[in-house]
Design goal:
Layout: H1 2-7, H2 11-38, H3 47-68, H4 77-97, E1 99-101, E2 104-110, E3 113-115, H5 117-135, H6 143-162, H7 167-182, H8 188-211, H9 213-216, H10 219-229, H11 240-252, H12 277-310, H13 314-339, H14 356-391, H15 394-397
Antiparallel strand pairs: 1-2, 2-3
Function: Peptidoglycan polymerase that is essential for cell division.
GO molecular function, one term: lipid-linked peptidoglycan transporter activity
EC number: 2.4.99.28
């Protein structure tokens, strides 16, 4: 039994995850060694590297636990109620006790370390929607009963995240939920009704947005948009990050300047070890370094989609689609901001950027994906073959073998 379970795990997925996180730790050290002293005033250039090592060890333990923990237990009503309660309480509580970092009250300070609850919410939304819609498979064609109720939690969680304000994470939460809903198998009529409902809600809330436009569209947020449209016009202000990101990417070329030899990390590019770590990778390791990260993340996303397609259990299938979708969306938002394709939102690069909360919950998510894939492989390779043997008539199975 145990040997069959061990054989059923998707080891290439685990290997890519480990390689990508180790690569991330190396790049965090390279990108932050000067920043630690010059910007943050620490005496140790390996300050962020040491903290990320601790984050990585904790994340590996969480990944291993999630990989062996039967994912089907997550479908229980008690766990789902706990997820909803913790998500709403923490998101509402952030409005009062959240620490303001980079103009957003998205963090809870715990001594020398900080925790970002929205990372838990991203995973919680996936588990909740996957479980609820898996249970509603028999009446998904009923919009009021089978489709609409779970969406209230998705919309509320996205809204509470957006007003922190953290629009990047809010978009990831909402888009991930939309992917799960799209993959439930509901008919196109209900999908069309969801779109119409969304448009109506936008129209209804438009007067409120216009009324509170001075609160919502602050000067800082508008400057982000202006600097996105023309970063070189604001290169001494809000366009500083994007302009220096362009310089870093352009300087790397095919081979890069060499590991540890980045110029932009010497105080020119803010947040080089977090949101803009890909720019440093491009500068130091060139196309080859960028390709390694992109191929690794694409492999993880495509593996997740493959697991979702081959899993017969609706809950496991929706979990796989949701997790792979979340990783793919977060990757796009990060790279889009670094390259100037979309406005900068402060979203880290999955498994590579510095940060404990993001790495921890992404690792747990990948562990759950591994567990879903293991169950699917086990059922296909062993249970299916055992059922075939059981289907053989007894009088045939009782025939003695003859040595030839």
């Amino acid at each position: 039994m145990i040997k069959k379970v061990v054989k059923s795990y998707d080891y290439p997925l685990a290997v890519v995850y480990i390689l990508l996180t180790i690569f991330g730790v190396i790049m965090v050290y390279s990108a932050s060694m000067v920043t630690s002293i010059q910007v943050y005033g620490y005496d140790d250039p390996s300050f962020f590297f040491n903290k990320q090592i601790v984050n990585l060890v904790i994340s590996y333990i969480a990944f291993l636990f999630a990989a062996i923990f039967p994912y089907k237990i997550l479908k229980s009503n008690k766990i789902l109620v706990t997820i909803v309660a913790i998500s709403l309480v923490t998101l509402i509580g952030l409005q009062f006790i959240g620490s303001n970092i980079n103009n957003a009250t998205s963090w809870i300070q715990m001594g020398t370390r900080s925790f970002q609850p929205s990372e838990f919410v991203k995973l919680g939304i996936i588990i909740y929607l996957a479980a609820v819609y898996a249970k509603k498979q028999t009446y998904l064609d009923n919009f009021n009963k089978g489709v609409a109720p779970p969406i209230l939690f998705l919309v509320l969680a996205s809204f509470l995240t957006a007003i922190q304000p953290d629009f990047g994470t809010a978009f990831i939460i909402f888009a991930t939920g939309a992917i799960i809903i799209f993959c439930t198998g509901m008919n196109w009529k209900n999908i069309f009704r969801l779109i119409i409902t969304g448009v109506i809600m936008v129209v209804i809330f438009s007067p409120i947005i216009l009324w509170k436009k001075d609160v919502i569209f602050t000067e800082n947020r508008l400057n982000r948009i202006y600097s996105y449209l023309d970063p070189f016009k604001y290169e001494l202000g809000d366009g500083l990050q994007l302009v220096n990101s362009y310089v870093a990417i352009g300087s790397g070329g095919w081979k890069g300047l060499g590991l540890g030899k980045s110029i932009q990390k010497l105080g020119y590019l803010p947040e080089a070890h977090t949101d803009f770590i890909m720019a440093i990778i491009a500068e130091e390791l060139g196309v080859f370094g960028v390709s390694f990260v992109l191929f690794s993340l694409c492999f993880i996303v495509l593996k997740g989609i493959h697991i979702g397609l081959k899993t017969k259990d609706p809950f496991g299938s929706l979990l796989a689609f949701g997790i792979s979708g979340m990783i793919g969306i977060q990757t796009f938002i990060n790279l889009g901001g670094v390259s100037g394709l979309i406005p900068i939102t402060g979203v880290p690069l999955p498994f590579v950027s510095y940060g404990g909360s993001s790495l921890l919950f992404l690792s747990v998510s990948l562990g759950i994906l591994m567990n879903v894939g293991m169950f699917a492989n086990y059922e296909r390779m062993f249970l299916h073959s055992e059922r075939k043997i059981e289907e053989i008539p007894n009088h045939i199975r009782s025939i003695p073998s003859v040595d030839r």
